[in-house]
Amino acid sequence: MIIYNVTTIIEDTIHEEYIQYMQNVHMPAVMASGKFIDCHLLRLTEPINEGITYCAQYVTNDAEHLEDYRKDYSPKLQEDILKKFPEQFVSFRSVLEKV
Q: How far is CA 47 from CA 43, 51, 53, 79, in A?
């Protein structure tokens, strides 16, 4: 199992709008790519950062599906979220593998 993790620290002022966007627009669009079998939106509770930290996790069983997603879908979806919340968040991506 491979987990594509996107950690995002958002400004407090966009908290509710961000959650709605992730749950109703962004995450369904990622899942519509057909490259993942499950997803979760988690809130980081410790350590406490400036702003609010979320982790969007997308699960796949195939590294090739992840690479296809990164190449064919991710650039457009990242552009969309940058336009929606300009300069109001910072994100980084990581990949985890279940052992």
A: 11, 11, 10, 28
